[in-house]
Amino acid sequence: MKLNKYINNISSLQISQLIRFVTLFLIGVIFTKTQLTTSDIGAYEKLLFIASAVSFFWISGLTQSFLPLYGNNKTFNKPPAINHDKSPEFFNAFLLICFFSILAFVFVLIFKTYLSQLLNNSQPIKYFNLLLIYILISNPSYFITYFYLLKNKPKQIIQYSFISFSLQLLLVALPSIFGYGIEYCLWGLILISALRIIWLLFLLSRYANFVISIQFIKEHIHLAYPLVLSSLLSGSAKYIDGFLVSYYYDSAKFAIFQYGAREFPLVVILANAFSNAMIPEFSGKINLSSSLRMIRNKSKQFMHLLFPVTIVLLFVSIWLYPIIFNNNFVESAYIFNIYLLLIVSRMIFPQTILIGLKRSKIILSASVLEIIINVSLSILFINLWGIIGVAIATVVAYFFEKLFLVYLVYKKLNILPTHYIPVKLHLIYSFLTFLAYFVVANYL
Hints:
Blueprint: H1 9-33, H2 38-53, H3 56-69, H4 88-110, H5 112-119, H6 128-138, H7 144-150, H8 154-177, H9 182-207, H10 214-248, H11 251-260, H12 265-278, H13 288-324, H14 330-340, H15 343-346, H16 350-356, H17 360-385, H18 387-413, H19 423-443
Helix pairs in contact: 1-8, 1-12, 2-6, 2-11, 3-4, 3-10, 4-6, 4-10, 6-9, 7-8, 8-9, 10-17, 10-18, 11-14, 12-13, 13-14, 13-19, 14-18, 16-18, 17-18
């Protein structure tokens, strides 16, 4: 019972994302301990890479834009829908995400030959049909946790995540443990996606009012499209990096890059979940200064926890990677150390303010700057320093994007950085983190 006071929408989303990360991490570790080769793992990673590349941006844009619209939109002019048993917003948002899933499916099918040229040296992509099935049925289930979030059911978020990802771990990892090939692991991934779809349909029957509203869909798209474009621009740099590595190197090298090109999970989990959970706080008639103060105070707590742990990881990751995975992934640790530096950008939350106040178009301009910097530097640095150069380009681009967003929040909304950022503390921790990286890179 004492734990109940710590379970809220913010903490439940953070726990959900932590469970998701642990699951994906354990699957990766198990793969490296079985008979699967590095090339097998690379083929699996490529399929997930393609599925994510054609979906991540619109999933992010649609879900983030739905949070401030729920119970606060022009189409269904009523008190917050949280007081109603069933909501037409849910059903129409579901239709929209299904429509985009079909578009992603068709896109990959049409550009099959081009993808094989870009990612597989013009050789047929293995298990392509399984990839198509996965794209079609996996994306709508991302909406499930936001059902619970908007219905203020944090315990159900944790319960669903634990059950869902435990099943994913079993269905995806067990085939490799019993000596089956990567194809059976992919079938496990498809099976858990199908089970999530069944649960999503159950939630719709319970929480959704099945009324199609073109007006609400238009309103949703109007708010979402800047976020979709912004996610496409800023997030696509990660996938362009993957395409570059795949173009220059083979599947084994691609697997090494993918296993290293990961941020410190606690940073991503705590930052993203906190940002998404705070968005509805800005959408109603609230005290803006109170919400800004909440972001600042929570940021300070995150920094005291996450920066010291990141610094420790910088010193030990070189030894941990061969132990956790195997000796083929030693080079991944050097890439991972560079990605650890993204904490400097992650601990700043101007995007939360802009999305919550429905100023999503502002974010788009920052994303344009980020993608230009990232792609340009990635192409330059991969020729200078190899796959490590791609990671450096990502860190630089993300840093400049956040600085630009901070500037835009001040210019457009007249909100000083000190109102939502513990500036001095952030500068001190950032300096110590970069100093630790310099010591590790040059002396260890």
